[in-house]
Write a structure and sequence with these properties.
- By secondary structure, the chain is mostly helical.
- The protein has 2 helices and no strands.
- The radius of gyration is 45 Å and the shape is rod-shaped.
């Protein structure tokens, strides 16, 4: 039994120590179908990356466009406010001038 056990240990040692040699030299050749599948997978990955890049670029452009529109709208609103304020000041001055003139006319009549 000791002898059998020694042979088993020696055999196991031989198999374990030789396994890396067999593993590195024994590569299974790829079949044309596997190559096609790999090529299709690579192609699909490239398409996905390209689509993601396009989507990112489009989102950035959309964001830039939206910011420009917001800025333009804000500028337009500011201009309208300034214009309205100028009109209001003019109207107030005109009204004040009319009131002064009426007061002067009233004072002159007395």
């Amino acid at each position: 039994m000791k002898r059998t056990l020694a042979f088993l240990v020696a055999g196991a040692f031989a198999v374990v120590s030789a396994a890396p040699v067999f593993a590195s030299s024994a590569t299974t050749p790829t079949t044309p179908a596997e190559k096609k599948v790999e090529k299709a997978a690579d192609s699909a990955e490239k398409k996905i990356e390209k689509t993601e890049k396009k989507a990112t670029t489009k989102m950035e452009k959309t964001a830039d466009t939206a910011e420009k529109k917001i800025d333009k709208t804000a500028d337009t609103a500011e201009k309208k406010i300034e214009k309205t304020e100028k009109k209001a000041v003019k109207k107030m001055d005109k009204t004040a001038d009319k009131a002064e003139k009426k007061a002067e006319d009233a004072a002159a009549k007395k």
